[in-house]
Amino acid sequence: STDLFEAATVRRMVEHLRMLLEGVVAKPEEAVGRLPLLTEAERQQVLVTWNQSQAEYERDTTIPHLFEAQAKRTPEALAVVSGKQRLTYREVEAKANQLAHRLRKLGVGPESRVGLCVERTADVVVGTLGILKAGGAYVPLDPSYPKERLGWLLEDAQGPALVAHSHLLESLPPFTAQAVCLDREEEWAEESCCPVTSEVRPENVAYLIYTSGSTGRPKG
Q1: How far apart are CA 218 and CA 220, in angstroms?
Q2: Measured between alpha carbons, how far is 66 from 71 in angstroms, rounded to an integer?
Q3: Which residues 6+ apart lie within 8 Å of 186 measured at CB?
Q4: Helical segments of the chain, H only
Q5: Is 208 inside a domain boundary?
Q6: Could you read off the pLDDT of 66-79 as tens digits, one per residue?
Q7: Residue 109 DSSP SS3
Q8: By CB distance 3.0 to 4.6 Å, which of 106, 119, 188, 203 could disulfide with 102?
Q9: Is the sign of the CA dihedral 124, 129, 134, 139 positive or negative?
């Protein structure tokens, strides 16, 4: 049907059929799903030409600096959409800066590990960026994990602070880190909206992810 397919598309389909039939003749014992469809020119295009993704970038910059620059360029553009929640770049930048100032007062800096236990909302972005702005490395803590696993991760991370949703704190085992609740903005709303002066470098740790622990205790 010429209403559905352009001539170039049909020619490409015919070439794929030809390649498949040649493969059948060459390897009649092979499963159809393992036979080739792409011509050599298409393979070159898909595997090589379209994968020329090298690009120059500033080696000494960090994620917080890049986000700050974008917020200056497009402050009112939407940065995060989560359900009915809408946050612009300006709003995310301000909230993350306030959180970062609060975390710095709690001792967070380069190489510090900060647990992040929040539900999958816009707060994930605010929390992650705030931790990075403070110079710390974020440690994701999935609230669906068993308490024993969460306790081990908190103990191993040994961070000075924990960023969380207040209602999830009850599901966590005892911990010594200072909690900062993203859903209690009144606790850190007085902090400055200006960026934190941080000594963090691209070489510093950004995050810590743990293995599943199927062979024993999980490893970071």
Answers
A1: 7
A2: 9
A3: none
A4: 7-26, 40-47, 63-73, 89-105, 123-133, 147-157
A5: no
A6: 999 999 999 999 99
A7: coil
A8: 188
A9: positive
pLDDT digits (tens, 9 = 90+) for 164-184: 999 999 888 888 899 999 999
Q: Which helix (H) or strand (E) segment is 220 a member of?
A: none
Instruction: Note whether 15 and 96 are same-domain residues.
Output: no
Which amino acid appears at position 134 of this protein?
A: A
Helix (H) or strand (E) holding 79: strand 78-82
Q: Are strands 137-140 and 78-82 parallel, antiparallel or unpaired?
A: unpaired
Q: Both tokens of residue 208?
A: 């810590």
Q: What are phi and psi of 115, to 5 degrees?
A: -65, 145
* Boundaries of domain holding 137: 92-187
| Residue type, position 118, single letter | V
| Token pair in block for residue 29 | 């014992």
Q: 186: which 2 tokens?
A: 């009144």
Angle, to 10 degrees, between the axis of helix 63-73 and the axis of helix 123-133? 120
Does the residue 39 lie in any domain?
yes
